[in-house]
Write a structure and sequence with these properties.
By secondary structure, the chain is an all-alpha fold. The protein has one domain: Orthogonal Bundle (Arp2/3 complex 21 kDa subunit ARPC3), CATH 1.10.1760. The chain is about 75% helix and about 0% strand. It is built from 8 helices and no strands. Helix 5 packs across helix 7. The chain is globular. The termini are far apart.
């Protein structure tokens, strides 16, 4: 695969993911809803699975997580920038591990029940895994230090919080897989200006709000 084309895809998918976390995630939180669970179950899963389905390139999603996490750091709307950025990057890494052997050419992925099952497992794992990684790395990065007993106390709550994103992902994944039948191809002369334009727009909007807030 053309490396430049792949890098452009990493940037645009990662930027869209980070932008949605900043803008839509904030709106959901303002409504008093569990923004983290909803963002992971719907938006994170959508960007991660779509990119894997279109490009079939392991490692791409990890790069997307780093881009999205970096953009999330420049968030003028919500607190805890660092923990959210760490969670996003961790979710992408965990997705890479879970989907390392998943192939859209396999017969099992064509069955709606298996699609839903993979969605449930993925949604639960990336959200809970990201949550745990955040609880470990955030205090270390902040200089407070990590204590295992603190994590153990919150484990029941962390595990329970994975229910909503797992349900959303279980419903969403079969819908995303069905969209595979849509043939969406963009010629290079349009692909690069389009991906570059979307990427720049996402960063300009977030950074503009960050410096003007």
């Amino acid at each position: 695969m053309n490396k430049v084309r792949l890098i452009a895809a990493v940037l645009v998918f990662g930027s869209l993911w980070g932008f949605s976390e900043v803008l839509i995630g904030t709106s959901i939180s303002d409504l008093g809803l569990p923004s983290g669970a909803i963002m992971t179950g719907f938006f994170a899963l959508t960007f991660l699975v779509l990119s894997r389905m279109i490009f079939r390139q392991p490692g791409m999603q990890a790069g997307m997580g780093l881009v999205a996490g970096s953009l999330r750091m420049f968030n003028p709307f919500m607190g805890c920038h660092l923990c959210s950025a760490i969670a996003i990057a961790a979710e992408a890494m965990i997705f890479e591990i879970i989907w390392h052997k998943v192939s859209f050419d396999s017969d099992y992925i064509k069955k709606p029940f298996m699609q839903a099952s993979i969605g449930v497992i993925t949604g639960f794992s990336i959200y809970v895994g990201g949550y745990i990684v955040t609880q470990i790395l955030t205090p270390i990065a902040g200089g407070a230090g990590f204590y295992v007993e603190n994590l153990i106390v919150f484990m029941p709550r962390i595990l329970a919080s994975g229910l909503l994103p797992s349900i959303i992902a279980g419903i969403l994944l079969p819908i995303i897989v069905v969209s595979k039948k849509l043939d969406i191809s963009i010629k290079d002369r349009l692909y690069y200006p389009l991906t570059l334009g979307i990427t720049i727009l996402c960063w300009v909007l977030v950074l503009g709000n960050f410096f003007l807030a």
